[in-house]
Amino acid sequence: MSNNNHYDVIIVGGGQSGLTMSYFLQQAGMSHVVFEKNSILHGWKHERWDSFTLVTPNWQCDLPGLPYDGDDPKGFMTGQQTVAWLERFAAKVNAPVREGVAVKRVECDDDGLYQVSTTDGDFTADQVVVTSGGYHQPVIPRMAERIPDSVHQIHSAQYKNAAQLPEGAVLVVGSGQSGAQIAEDLHLEGRKVFLATGDAPRVARFYRGKDVVEWLYDMGYYDISVKEHPLGKNVAAKTNHYVTGRDGGRDIDLRKFATEGMELYGLMTDFDGENLIFRPDLAANLQKADDTYNNINARIDAWIEQQGIETAEGPSRYEPVWQVPEERTTLNLAESGITSILWCIGFRPDFSWLDAPVFNGQGHPKHDRGITQQSGLYFLGLPWLHTWGSGRFGAVKQDADYLCKAIKIYSQRRHTTAVA
Is the pTM of this model over 0.85? Predict the structure, then answer.
């Protein structure tokens, strides 16, 4: 194998995390390549719906060398604006990306050298950074196979707008960030929406004169590491709070949607050939979401009082605008008029190409701030890799800088050992 096929570091994944890692490795003068099976920023360009906006305010977008550069720091970039900003970042970094090259297998040999097999040949590296995220395989349950072919079924990753769906009612399964926002999008387009809820929490968009994100930032929440968090590593598995940045940002209140005609149900569990089956937990799901909403606001109230901050608005609690009249556990598919089902229940990780003893029983990598127990193998861009912002634009810069320092130390140690 020629030296042209060897690098100090191989990066797998050409999204914002891979580009950020490349930025720091360039500063460190380390040879590297980024393998991207599609094109750079593919997910941002092709896996968001048309009305998508960021949920976090623009001022939290802070990639190395290119923090948010628009004129609305407290606003929320649309999908197109986000892509344009990321493309400016990609141009600035000018990473050595090999697009259209899929990594088929990575394994470490007895000498500690990583053997990397790709669709464009074989390569070696002293170290490997996996930046492909953890959202690889769209989750669609096996019950979907029993639903008649006359019902159009897609995953949230495929959704663009209401016009792509056949006429008729739509069942949205899942009330996390994507499910709640897509249900709202369809509702605003005048579609009849049935929403199967889960245990996703919600949060206020604005409270006592500021974005809740700004309050939480002031309170130091975004600096809490996963090790310091009361839930520990379990926090990474928690469903994100639903809220939206659409039209300048607002709450998402499923109870309000119910007063406007949206049909709410509990967790969907099965299809018996005629009826969709749900748990009788709609009231509990809505109450749990509201409790989280109020608890976060109460923490903000306590912070305001502790700091002696004066605000124009006083403390308040959300009071439900609609109550569940009865728990409905079945819905006849034919009689409902449902012609489309949108599965918004997340993704599974797929690291089957990576031969390394670093995964737990659910296929998630075990690591300490991105550093695994296998020397020279790292992860970047995962939710709660270190802090809340690790899987977002807010803290990937700090995480990549931290990994780059570890990579340099390992490289120096490896080189010293080789010379000795």
Answer: yes
